[in-house]
Amino acid sequence: MPSHPILPQASSRALPPRPPSEFSSPEAALARKLAREHKDAQVRGVTSIQAMRDAIRQAASVLPCITEVPRLRMLDAAAFRARAALGLPFLMRGLVQRWPLSALAPQVLRERYSHVPVRARVGDYINTAFAADRAMQDMSMGQYLDLVDAGTHALPPYLGNLELRELNSLCHWPTYFDKMGPPRFWVGPAGTVTPLHCDYDDNIFAQVWGRKRIFLSPPHHDAFLYPSEANAILFGSPFDPEAPDFERYPLARQASMVECIVEPGDMLYVPAGWYHQVRALTFSLSSNRWARAVPLALQGDAAPRRGGE
Length: 309
Hints:
Elements lengths: L25 H19 L4 H12 L10 E3 L3 H8 L5 E4 L14 H6 L3 E5 L14 E5 H10 L8 E4 L21 E5 L4 E7 L3 E7 L2 E6 L10 E4 L2 E3 L21 E5 L3 E5 L4 E6 L3 E7 L19
Parallel strand pairs: 1-2
Antiparallel strand pairs: 2-13, 3-4, 5-6, 6-15, 7-11, 7-14, 8-13, 8-15, 9-12, 9-14, 10-11
């Protein structure tokens, strides 16, 4: 038996085009937004994304307040769905440790995947996190690692939310959801941050290398977090739970926050609508997948399903 996983041959590919920073007119922008929301609702089998968001917040309003994120053993699909139906986050240990990628060291990115094209978040990508014109640069993985090693940026450059298909065969995802989006990868040194936001899809987040600190807040506490819409599924908050400014955001005093540390091999379940902020404590590689279905916390009568589904 080989001592290390067999690496697939890496292939070069072009990055997808960046979205336009502006549309030809406000009417065109609105039409595109409505079309996207209609498609998103169809994919998830709900009457509308707005109805799904409202149902998520309503279901969360009766949840108990948690002071820690429980750590569980690895769960099979049935046990996972039963636990997720409670609408609360939890950590699992065991599954990610079995992935071939977990057996490799971070230097494999330079040794094997230096030529892979990536899109790096650079500059002030925190305060512009949910803007269409967020500062990004296209480069190769090797160039990105060189940029990190140079250490010339106050905020370390970040590879966030990328489809690194060259790594997919090294990650063995569980079938917890009937429909899932493609794996997304997050690579960066200590100090890289994804600011507070929520996705209105269930999320499983795998920590492969390194450690991260994550703050979580329940969906119905968005009333205290000054949210702004990036799109119908994604909302950002300007509040920073690591450096709270209650003079500027006084309502945030009422927001419940729970902190957890994800270690190598952990998988975190983030229920749809839960706000979360993520900071790398060491050089990290994480991967996640979002469900594309009715959230598991809405599997009962609360789900705003489309007719016949």
